[in-house]
UniProtKB/TrEMBL annotation:
Cofactor needs: pyridoxal 5'-phosphate
Superkingdom: Bacteria
Name under which the protein is recorded: cysteine desulfurase
Stretch forming the signal peptide: none
Organism the protein comes from: Sphingopyxis soli
Lineage: Bacteria, Pseudomonadati, Pseudomonadota, Alphaproteobacteria, Sphingomonadales
One Pfam family here: Aminotran_5
Keyword terms of this UniProt record: Pyridoxal phosphate, Transferase
Amino acid sequence: MPSPNPSRLREGDIRSDFPGLTRGWHYLDTAATAQKPQAVIDATVNAMGRDYATVHRGVYARSADMTLAYEAARRRIAAFIGARENNVTFVRGATEAINLVAYSHPKKGRVLLSMLEHHSNIVPWQLAGWQVDVCPLTADGCIDLDAAEKLLTPEHNMVAFAHVSNVLGSPLDVARAAGIAHRVGAELLIDGCQAVPRLPVDVAALGCDYYAFSGHKLYGPTGIGVLWSDKLDTLPPWQGGGSMIDRVTFERTTYAPAPTRFEAGTPAIVEALGLAAAVDFVEGIGVGAIHAHEVSLVASLREQLARKNSITLYGPENSAGIVSFSMAGVHPHDIGTILDESGVAIRAGHHCAQPLMEHLGVPATARASFGVYSNDDDVAALIDGLARVERIFG
Ligand SMILES: Cc1ncc(COP(=O)(O)O)c(C=O)c1O
């Protein structure tokens, strides 16, 4: 585990680690997907080239080495979130993690979601046949846990909330949510997609039952993510195939213990090694330092946006790394297109959160989101670009 070196953020040299960050380009869409540091690119190139072989099957040395590397990646990623390796299942991403729980859970009953959830924490529950209830938000756009406490009944067997909203940046008090869910006998699934890259996460301390996240938002590759749970053994297998079995006959099949039983087929070997390299990269700076860095960028951007009469800001003051806004009389897509002409990349749209858009009374918002490489120049470029939008539409 590397020792954290937060000074790299202060010195501003971190951008040189990211070949995707071309000069003059202001990337403010890290909540959609993070740019990749060279260390992650190198790890995936080596895993796909020099070191490539399958895992868990080969009797030859290269495959045995790759199996060790794949399982070491699991240990590395587990340690990063305070977990035991056997409780970490590799999946394609948060979407697949939530589908896995929604479909394989033996008691598909009532689930309490919140108004701010990403579609990937709504649709799987609907498709798998759960009865969905919705928890409202506080005035500043956080999940209203007082309301959750009143809404929950012993009929609920699941609560599924985002740790950080991908639209509003609202952070959740997970420990409190866990207490509220457990009091009525429900389990708590946390969608940690936007939290893991920007907040220190220790699943043991959080007290939730399931924690899901995607590697590509944590500076790792696409096609890999994590479902953590200390009750994986209570879930029956979800997808069947090679690797997840103990013994197969035409009459009866028995399954491998978790987490292997959830990893049917040849796994995302290259991506798992890439994600472990991403975890090394993030820990080399320190998640606490990344959080502090993003907090200061959010404060600066929110303050400058608040000075503009044309702008409506959404989400709480303490939003984690993400700022959503709209401009009077201008569609967010037009904002995004004009900003792009000045080399500023933001996200404009419903952010896969249509129920939240309906709640906010808008079809879409503009969203700027920060990462480890974001800096004051990016904020200044966004503010200059918005002045240009105002001139064009003014
Ligand atoms: C809060 C949240 N949950 C879930 C997802 C889905 O992640 P993925 O598409 O990587 O599965 C996202 C992606 O934007 C997200 O922001």
